[in-house]
Backbone:
């Protein structure tokens, strides 16, 4: 049974799906619609979304287009990368990490405009419905959530186009339609659907929109240097950059050298497996560099425990639990480890690969006096004998007991 809704904030891109949703909300719920379009670095002109909303009867004061690029990288991407986060060994969570920010801002706009509902365009099969709605509920549980894909019967592109034509919704043609479902932001671009629904089918080279193929990347390697402070990259080749500008610059370097392509089959939170391809050029560089600076600034047990925590942290983000107390608890522990993670990392970029070629830090725990293969005066090698015997004591006791 439909709830009575007076005003709804819609996550709006201006494309086919959300334009149909906008009109559908007006007709089905007979409510006022507020549109919210987030700029998180997807690389598209967003003003057409304003014009489209106006053409569909949205009041100018009810159209929000917000530049969230700096907030996205500073408060979401960077904290995630402090944990060296990877889901199921390969996915750098480019889509997952963007959803809580969009949901938070939507809830803020609902409060600002006096709206009593929020709506999104995620389907009933995917993870995004969970991420958006967990975000809404975490911000304001009194909001009514409208998920059109779980209510209507417009379950194909043909039906959506027919609805748009019937209601006079103009859908701009932007050249040849891609056969893939794509999502982009400053961290990555994703591809799903089409031939990718066969996990044994290799995607054609033309699918990849951001990066050159490793085979066609420059034949000469490029060396770069990243400065870190408290676990975050702060300067590239000696130039200080804001979080968003840092990621954008690393993206360009990664794209140039064919870095950051992955083709994976992942386990969705709702239960099925899904095959997706991703380009995360700057993020791939950041992950390699961050682990390098941590290798000389983190204590052994601190680093190992942090690695044990990472899969759980990744799962929380993937499943939509960014605003959960357990994610915040893990974040506090992770951020504590980053207090001395500072210094410089030198990297070589070459044909799809990122290689660490140097790392240095005033906080380095690497002491050549202890680990040298030459003569030293600080370490007595005889101590290793007792250390080994104590660690093997339980084996010795068990071995004697088993012989009885």
Residues:
């Amino acid at each position: 049974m439909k709830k009575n809704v007076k005003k709804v904030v819609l996550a709006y891109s201006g494309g086919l799906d959300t334009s149909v949703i906008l009109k559908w909300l007006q007709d089905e719920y007979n409510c006022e619609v507020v549109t919210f379009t987030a700029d998180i670095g997807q690389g598209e002109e967003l003003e057409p979304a304003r014009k489209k909303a106006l053409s569909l009867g949205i009041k100018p004061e009810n159209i929000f287009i917000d530049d969230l690029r700096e907030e996205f990288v500073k408060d979401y991407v960077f904290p995630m990368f402090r944990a060296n986060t990877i889901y199921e060994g390969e996915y750098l969570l480019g889509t997952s990490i963007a959803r809580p920010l969009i949901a938070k801002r939507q809830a803020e706009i609902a409060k600002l405009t006096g709206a009593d509902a929020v709506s999104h365009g995620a389907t009933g099969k995917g993870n995004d419905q969970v991420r958006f709605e967990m975000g809404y509920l975490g911000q304001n549980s009194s909001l009514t959530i409208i998920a059109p894909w779980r209510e209507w019967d417009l379950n194909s592109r043909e039906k959506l186009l027919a609805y748009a034509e019937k209601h006079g919704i103009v859908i701009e043609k932007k050249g040849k339609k891609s056969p893939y479902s794509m999502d982009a932001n400053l961290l990555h671009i994703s591809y799903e659907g089409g031939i990718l629904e066969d996990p044994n089918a290799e995607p054609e080279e033309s699918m990849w929109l951001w990066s050159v193929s490793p085979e066609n990347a420059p034949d000469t390697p490029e060396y770069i240097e990243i400065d870190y402070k408290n676990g975050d990259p702060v300067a590239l080749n000696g130039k200080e950059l804001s979080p968003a500008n840092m990621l954008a610059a690393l993206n360009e370097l990664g794209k140039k050298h064919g870095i950051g392509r992955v083709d994976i089959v992942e386990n969705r939170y709702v239960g099925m497996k899904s095959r997706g391809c991703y380009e995360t050029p700057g993020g791939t560089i950041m992950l390699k560099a961050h682990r390098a600076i941590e290798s000389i600034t983190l204590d052994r047990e601190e680093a190992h425990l942090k690695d044990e925590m990472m899969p759980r942290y990744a799962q929380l983000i993937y499943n939509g639990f960014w605003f959960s107390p357990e994610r915040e608890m893990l974040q506090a522990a992770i951020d504590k480890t980053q207090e001395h993670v500072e210094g410089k990392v030198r990297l070589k970029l070459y044909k799809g690969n990122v290689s660490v070629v140097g790392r240095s830090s005033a906080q380095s725990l690497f002491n050549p006096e202890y680990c040298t293969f030459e003569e030293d005066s600080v370490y007595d090698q005889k101590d290793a004998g007792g250390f080994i015997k104590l660690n093997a004591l339980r084996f010795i006791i068990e071995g004697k007991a088993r012989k009885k």
The chain has twelve helices and 14 strands.
